């Protein structure tokens, strides 16, 4: 939808098109205009960016995680999300 594209462009910091004045449009036959609005807060939550962070962990945990086929990025993200949730409540 147009609102998704608009919100995604804003989220990705791309140049947004200038708003148009519908009164200046020359419509023909069954043409019509439509107002497009976007919920930027909702889109921001949906399109969460990821950043790369280097971390240092104990060697034995690194070995254990590798042997257990644990994705360290996912594990860290889950742990931080849980900690964040706990701190908010």
UniProtKB/TrEMBL annotation:
Domain of life: Bacteria
Region (Disordered), start-end ranges: 1-23
Pfam families: CcdA
Keywords per UniProt: Toxin-antitoxin system
Stated name of the protein: HicB-like antitoxin of toxin-antitoxin system domain-containing protein
